[in-house]
Amino acid sequence: MLQRDYTTSQLDVLEAEAIHVMREVAAEFERPCLLFSGGKDSIVMLRVAEKAFWPAPIPFPLMHVDTGHNFPEVIDFRDRRVAELNARLVVASVQASIDAGRVMEETGRRASRNRLQTTTLLDAIEEHEYDAVFGGARRDEEKARAKERVFSFRDDFGQWDPKNQRPELWNLYNTRIRKGEHIRVFPLSNWTELDIWHYIQREGIEIPSIYFAHTRKVFERDGMLLADAEVVQRGEDEPIFEAVVRYRTVGDMTCTGAVASTATTVEQIIDEVAATRITERGATRADDRASEAAMEDRKKEGYF
Amino acid sequence: MDILRFATAGSVDDGKSTLIGRLLFDSKAIFEDQLEAVERTSRDRGTEYTDLSLLTDGLRAEREQGITIDVAYRYFATPRRKFIIADTPGHIQYTRNMVTGASTADLAIILIDARKGVLEQSRRHAFLTTLLRVPHLVLAVNKMDLVDYSEARFEEIREEFTAFASKLNASDLTFIPISALHGDNVVSRSENMPWYEGTSLLHHLEHVHIASDRNLVDVRFPVQYVIRPHNATNQSLHDYRGYAGQVAGGVLKPGDEVMHLPSGLTTRIRSIDTFDGALDEAFPPMSVTLRLEDDIDISRGDMICRPHNQPQVAQEIDAMVAWMTDGVRLQSRSKLVLKHSTRTARTVVRDLQYRLDVNTLHRDESATSLGLNEIGRVTLRTTQPLFVDDYARNRQTGGFILIDEATNSTVGAGMIVDAH
Ligand SMILES: Nc1nc2c(ncn2[C@@H]2O[C@H](COP(=O)(O)OP(=O)(O)OP(=O)(O)O)[C@@H](O)[C@H]2O)c(=O)[nH]1
Ligand SMILES: [Mg+2]
Question: What is the pTM assigned to this prediction?
Answer without folding.
Answer: 0.95
